[in-house]
Amino acid sequence: KAGVTQTPRYLIKTRGQQVTLSCSPISGHRSVSWYQQTPGQGLQFLFEYFSETQRNKGNFPGRFSGRQFSNSRSEMNVSTLELGDSALYLCASSFPGQRNTNYGYTFGSGTRLTVV
Amino acid sequence: DAKTTQPPSMDCAEGRAANLPCNHSTISGNEYVYWYRQIHSQGPQYIIHGLKNNETNEMASLIITEDRKSSTLILPHATLRDTAVYYCIVRPYNQAGTALIFGKGTTLSVSS
């Protein structure tokens, strides 16, 4: 069974540009959540989508947005990039309410974004 | 904010049991205790979860106090590959719209 796939693995962007990151959840999982990880702030929750609807949102500016498609794949977008947006962006999938073998979230390996 | 408190770091000798404590004094009746770990540069990995009974799986054991205000994750025979940051999280069971809120976690260093 394939795991959570995030693309690309690495990305370098310039300040002011925008970026789109992709996440394909485990087959059958309908919930996708996104996290930002930096050395200073640790793992911070960005947002969670379930059945194409945003169910929860963390404390991030409006430059950070996301969406989920009917096949449960998700994308997140960051506009007007700042140096502080350099981070590891992690995606996790789960099947809310179902007792699967993980009983929780399965994370991808992340996308390492560097803003210069 | 995270609802748990963990020591920032712990050391363990290879082959010995690693006991990682977590305080969650404000845990609600419908909240479970989850443990995840993150090995350097990888995504967090689910370890175990529990409500009020002790739990054991192939990776670890989870001991939750009777008042549910604290818990201990036990790695019975730690190996070098168990060196990671361990996160204790409380949240309702697998419920859509309730995020995993990570604290700083405990950095476990296993040495030979």
Helicity of chain A, as a percent range: under 10%
Low-confidence stretches of chain A: none
* Classification by helices and strands of chain A: mainly beta
Q: Name the strands of the widest sheet of chain B in spatial order.
A: 1-9-8-3-4
Q: What string, H for helix and E for strand, traces the elements of chain B in order?
A: EEEEEEEEE
N-to-C SSE string of chain A, H for helix and E for strand: EEEEEEEEEEE
Beta-strand percentage of chain A? over 45%
Radius of gyration of chain A: 14 Å
**Secondary structure: helix percent of chain B:** under 10%
Distance from N terminus to C terminus of chain A (CA atoms, Å) equals: 37 Å
Give a description of the structure.
- The complex is a heterodimer of chains A (116) and B (112).
- In chain A, 0% of the residues lie in helices and 52% in strands.
- The model of chain A has no long low-confidence stretch (mean pLDDT 91).
- Chain A has no helices and 11 strands.
- Chain A has 116 residues and is an all-beta fold.
- The relative contact order of chain A is 0.32.
- In chain A, the strands form 2 sheets. In chain A, strands 2, 4, 5, 6, 9, 10 and 11 form a 7-stranded mixed sheet that branches.
- Chain B has 112 residues and is mainly beta.
- Chain B contains no helices and 9 strands.
- Chain B has strands spanning 9-13, 18-23, 31-38, 45-50, 55-56, 61-64, 70-75, 84-92, 106-111.
- In chain B, the strands form 2 sheets. A 5-stranded mixed sheet of chain B has the order 1-9-8-3-4, with no helix packed on it.
- In chain B, a hairpin with a 4-residue loop joins β5 (55-56) and β6 (61-64).
- The radius of gyration of chain B is 13 Å and the shape is globular.
- The termini of chain B are far apart.
- The mean pLDDT of chain B is 92.
- The A-B interface holds A 4, 31, 33, 35, 42-45, 48, 50, 55-56, 58, 88, 90, 92, 94-99, 102-110 and B 34, 36, 38, 41-46, 49, 87, 94-105.
